[in-house]
Amino acid sequence: MIVSNPESLLRNGLYKSTVLRYAGFLIVSIGLLLIFPAILAMFLNENYWMFLIPSAIAIPIGLTILVLFRENKEGIRITSGVLMIGGTFLIMLLMGSAPYVVFGMSVIDSMFESLSGFTTTGFTMVNDFERFPDSLFVWRSLTQWAGGISVLLIFMYMLPVMGLGSRGFFINEMSGSGTGNLSVRLKDSVGSFLKIYMALTLIQAILLILLGMNFIDSLCITFSTVSTGGFATNPNSLTEYGWGIKVPVMIFMFLGGTNFYLHYKGLHKRMYKSYVGNTEFRWTASWYLVIAVLIGILLTFAGKVGVLNNFGESLFSVISAGTSTGFAVTDYADSGVWPAQLCMMLLLLVAFIGGMSGSTAGGVKMYRIVIIVKHVKNSIYKILHPMAVYDIKMDEHSVEESSVSGAFVTVALFAMTVTITFIGLMMTGILPADSIGLAVSSVSNTGVVIGGHGSFSDLYMLSTSAKIIMMSAMFLGRLEIATALLLFMPGFWKEVRRNMKSDKSRGHADSE
Question: Residue 207's closest CA among 146, 252, 148?
């Protein structure tokens, strides 16, 4: 936190703190967002106070922070940026859980539901869908929609500008945009990313209504699809809908899991060939298709009736798991319905890899897998030709060495986090086969669970310790492990204190 001296406050009436300025803006934004389900609750004759109470508290607090603090014009330090990212999810977690607490859910279940929404995971603690208000259904899906926007802003703008995450990847992707400064190029593009996000939302909602889905369900499904979240208004997810609904949902799940910079080039700049010309897009589409065909064959040979339905079901399940959406069209926990164990293992692998970079999807991201595969291939070739120099390229651009090492580190961190989560869940008394499904789904922010705790099971019956472990895994996975781990390292907080002292000294110098 960067705070000027008291004399400066008296003279200017303001402190300097980019972190707190951003926090105030976020608090006001969520407070305003709560008004939408409140208005909806009024029309539906439901309890609108569960939204208005937290909104009435949040907006004045947020406005006060905005009045007191102004942005530091010297740019965003890495420490400030990480604090902003961590604070974002903390604020969203607390504010998002308030309506559930007022409704009557326990504090831990409310916090779980809120974090599951904002991280676009899709796990739910709802135990009585019939009693759950429609306005609260809209709110929980709206948290996923807002969480999707947060993910886009963090991974497509904040982290690359700070020099973290996928900076090397975006330098490659945006090298031909005609602007010399990466931060300027990204900032100019962010508005277009959000317009595309909102356009996809509007198109899908209208399409679902035209296809016969009621207004509330269409809103909830749309918010959960574009954000690749997976919250549904039915305990059986999408199993009760026909393929007329499932196919559009499947298409928009894939679009939500696609790199939004590709949408920017394809939809905004009308460069439609950019999709098929993109390596990550081709690999992802081919990967989903191959696994879907394989699962369809396995289901058919396992005795599941209906060949066409098997392939449709497998394709939907693969896209849902791969984009980390989590919608289900079958019960993976029922061996009579989903009989092939290998199918479930393949879905876990698809969920672990996840979707494309620069999207709302979770997982390790396909572009890292592409880099690792190409690096391994080059290493094998180098055995035959030791003196040769092999360059890793993505779409005709050389990949930096830092991006290669970063890909290996991220995959290793994901695997390590899944392992630790798996062990932790087993220690709470959950069976190993069920623990691995919960672990992969939590870290990958998928929401599709393979094992005894399947998509239609009662997760609210898990112990408090298991829920806390899963919440921690969801948070770590959403920030791709490394960024989140910085918040728990003593060296990071030493750097924060060092920066605070430096800024305080600078503030005294400026005042003299």
Answer: 252
